[in-house]
Design brief:
heterodimer, A: about 325 residues, alpha/beta, about 40% helix, globular, B: alpha/beta, 3-stranded antiparallel beta sheet, about 30% helix, about 25% strand
Chain lengths: ~325, ~180
Amino acid sequence: MTSPLGKDLLGLEHLSAEQISLVLDTAEPLKEISERTIKKVPTLRGATIVNLFFEASTRTRTSFEFAEKRMSADTVNIAIAASSVSKGETLVDTARNLEAMRIDMVVIRHQSSGAARFLAERIESNVINAGDGTHEHPTQGLLDLLTLRQRFGTLKGKRVCICGDVLHSRVARSNIWGLTKLGAEVAVCGPRSLLPSAIEQMGVHVFDRIEQAIEWADALNVLRLQLERMQAGYIPSLREYNRVFGVTRERLDRAPRDILILHPGPMNRGVEIDSDVADGPHSVILEQVTNGVAVRMAVLYLLAGNSPRLAEAAKGGA
Amino acid sequence: MANAPHTIVLSARAVERTVTRMADEIIERNDGTERLVLVGIQRRGVQIAGRIAAVIKAREGTDVPIGALDITLYRDDLQTVGPRPVVGKTHLPVGIEGVHVVIVDDVLFTGRTIRAALDELADFGRPAKVSLAVLVDRGGRELPIQPDVVGKHVDVPAGERVDVAVVELDGKDEVSLSAMVAS
């Protein structure tokens, strides 16, 4: 039986608006499971999932692990430090080893763009992209969409501005694809050195000043400023960045309407976002974290119907 | 939906009478409404549970708590039929520890839905007792599960399907038989 999402979740670019809405509609009722005393349903009993992380991650990996466990899957975490072997070779070897261990799904985080697709094309198991280089981070995009949809009711015509280091951000890319497909208006705002040169071609507005973004937007998705960017010369200093692009209480107070504040975490308080904004009444940052588990449960559920090995086993056992 | 020829088993009036009798039977079996909780199975079981609760309210003057169970995540056929398009809400209004839970569904057929519902209920607590009330029992059980309260027994020939319509979702109350259309 085919899954409504296909075999893998590699990005939001190639999903339809209907497929994205299906994930959100499925995630909605799944939130209730995490409120139960026994936070577990038997849906994925017997499925083996490998969380294959080539890059450090606490939040995303923990969120996936909770989602997997609440669906009763058996999970193994593999953290692989960047090795001296060329990345392509490492992935192929890893893929072969995983196949030999008879697993059903792989959640992969990798520093190279396209790594998830590379793996998906070489193994039978379902592959979920948990972030590949600067390409996509689809489950983060989906949880942002769910959070916004819950607050706004619909995304149609809503204005969302993605602020900060859009150039290096897979979160930004997944957000832009998802938001535009669901009918939202999207803008980006940040120093020109941190915006992709052809960003307008993705159908987004560009603001050079955070004040303009705040004037325009219904929601701001404030990206984490990778501190390495300063050493690389993209920005002069963190203080300077906060002074020009920081999302501060004073700036939000001048907004013509209440603006929802999202942040994918982990935050640099006092750099891209001030503490009184992050902890303020319009912040939905912790809702994003709660929704993250539900969205990942929904993705696991929707992909699970498309596991050739499990389907074979189910037929044999019937 | 195509307008396939169908036979009406229960008209709107008959549904009303049947539900009323089911409500009376439930009160009788429970010896009143003390510690009674109705739990409808998504989707149409939820509406039928609501009707039963309304009759109980009229008869006994008490509000019996109503919950809803969506058993999609407890199905045993995910790998053979794939994920169901939309998962519904599960909501239990009160703790079920030590109470008498009456599971309410529209049609009892293979019993697999009830098996899943029992598993899901167990994840919420340990009721003193669990009973099963169904509007229609069409036979054809594949598991050792039997109802306690039955609205109507219907012998359904192979290749035919029982459809329960409720005003809230379908615009009318009706139980009918129709030929199974290959999907």
